[in-house]
Amino acid sequence: MTDPAAQTEPLPDDPVVPAAAPEVAEAEAESAPAQEEGKKEDSFLIFLLKLVVLVTLFRSLVFSPFNIPSESMLPRLVNGDYLLAAKWPYGYSRYSLPFALPLLPEERVLASPPQRGDVVIFKQPPLKELDYIKRVIGLPGDLVQMVDGQLYLNGVPAPKQRIADFEIPISPNTQCYSLQFIARRDDGTDVCRYPRYRETLPGGRHYEVLDLGPRFMDNTAPVLVPEGHLFLMGDNRDNSEDSRFPAEPGRGIGLVPMDNLVGRASFMIWSTDGSVEWFKPWTWFTAARWDRLGGTF
Predict the structure, then answer these.
(1) What residues are labeled active site?
(2) Domain ranges in the chain?
(3) pTM, rounded to two decimals
(4) Alpha carbon distance 127, 55 (integer Å)
(5) Homologous superfamily in CATH for domain 62-155+215-292
(6) Which of helix, strand or coil describes residue 97?
């Protein structure tokens, strides 16, 4: 008799798994890390794609950063400021998108009009290539005029009160408009010192403006703001080519169509006086205007 315990051949119904050849096993072992690496690369590309889409949507629909390259909005905004603009208050158009991609119409959707006194970012007429920033002064139907440096709205002068002079240290980002405005503080700091006023619009909204003295645009003819347009001005009244000037590329803006609006200035996120030297890391901190961060509009 045969001892069942000594039986070495498999029974007919036992599963039989053939052993892999050594070469096949080695190839499978080598391909496993490559497959895992490919999956990681695919996951990273998907992550990058999602990140790009998320950032694009955020910049297009919520907030977008802008920097201030000039002094036309002194004293509220100075050269070297960086701010976030809210994109939703005035609706959306192709100019809400990065690079003005033609994925939306030029006419705004979900449109809402700005209010007098808003600080707005817009595409400068007529080419709509550059982003400008100014303050809303006149709405459709308003009659706007300057008389001896004072703003008139619908025939009524906007109250203008002299307050303390505005001072800003001279730096690579800040040079005085002319020699007459150069001054020195008691601590020896060289500054630009400008006459400053508080201007108040109908409804009580007020802000600060600079008036550098008699200039040729202190007196203008009355302008009736047409439907769908805005009369915009810089707070630095004598150093701003705004709606008092005809629209020219890189110069004046004329009456700005509301469809050119990009967003409303919201709050300050950074400001630098321009003295940063990349190979001197301590200047990354000394160049910052820390007292300007977090300001709202």
Answers:
(1) 72, 134
(2) 62-155+215-292
(3) 0.81
(4) 27
(5) Umud Fragment, subunit A (2.10.109.10)
(6) coil
